[in-house]
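Bench log. Compound arrived from synthesis this morning; before running ITC I wanted a structural hypothesis for how nicotinamide-adenine-dinucleotide sits in the protein. Inputs:
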Amino acid sequence: MSTTPSPAGDTTPGRGPLAGRVALITGAAGGLGQAIATRLAAEGAALALLDAAASVHEGAQRVRATGARCEAAQADLTDPDARARALAALREALGPINCLINNAGITNHIAPLARMSAPGWDRELEVNLSGPFHLIQACLGDMVARGWGRIVNLSSMAARGGLYHQAGYTASKAGLIGLTRNVALEHARHGISCNAVLPGLIETPAVAAMPALVRDDAIALVPARRTGRPEEIAALVAFLCRDEAGFINGAEIDIDGGAHLCPIVLGSAREIRERQAAQQGQPAAPSPARGGSGPPAGR
Ligand SMILES: NC(=O)c1ccc[n+]([C@@H]2O[C@H](COP(=O)([O-])OP(=O)(O)OC[C@H]3O[C@@H](n4cnc5c(N)ncnc54)[C@H](O)[C@@H]3O)[C@@H](O)[C@H]2O)c1
């Protein structure tokens, strides 16, 4: 690396602990992606933003308005051609990628295991696990050549306790931890770190939109009794990208208000009602509209 990172507290554009680094953030148009982009730019990194949503370009404009270097590409990261074109364009504009933040992720299929569709399962594995694999492969060459690299994979507390009716999401996020370990095993000696971050319930738009029963039930079981803030995830990701974090490798870092200490398995609305009724020794109350199993029960 040709540049010397400047002091940790320096947020002058182009200066800071990540000055001279180019960071690729996937899912950069989403709740956590935007917070991570804001933080990495504030710490001096030049940003390469990738997302399937067109709004990734507006996000890039906001980052550039702060004085940071930032380019964006709209692409589905599971499409090999689109992914290759996006990476080539971002690399052409900013130079080799030094930090890769695998943040894009989906929950697209919520169903009991017995009724989980094969295409739904496949898509979650494709985006949440194979996507990071392909991007890591694409970025490793540059990192190895420079003897320096940082990879941060956004897993989930789902990888610990599971999520009710979300086998595909859970399996993909647990698989991402396995991938993280192997990257560290094979490439730590090249100056590359690869770590998994396991957020609990974070106050992103998707979590804010969860049914109140499901959200409140989950928060009541979090030792911190609150949801996390996107800025808290972003601060951890930025730290893992710094020079001084280089000896943290192959780690699984829970950032969940202590939720991993408790047997929290986010339930559907129906499951929560059944559990609450069982605790009171009563039959479960009839389910309201939609069969009561409810929409997404969190991440
Ligand atoms: N929010 C939470 O509480 C929470 C908790 C645990 C883990 N996570 C994980 O953190 C990450 C970010 O979560 P979020 O809440 O910001 O999600 P989000 O839905 O707000 O953002 C995800 C982004 O990924 C993009 N994306 C999805 N599929 C893509 C594809 N095929 N190609 C390119 N881009 C694609 C979407 O367009 C979206 O902008 C995810 O991996 C999620 O699983 C979130």
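What the model suggests: Residues 22-203+227-260 form a domain with the Rossmann fold fold (CATH 3.40.50.720). Residues 1-6, 288-298 have pLDDT under 50 and may be disordered.
ITC booked for Thursday regardless.
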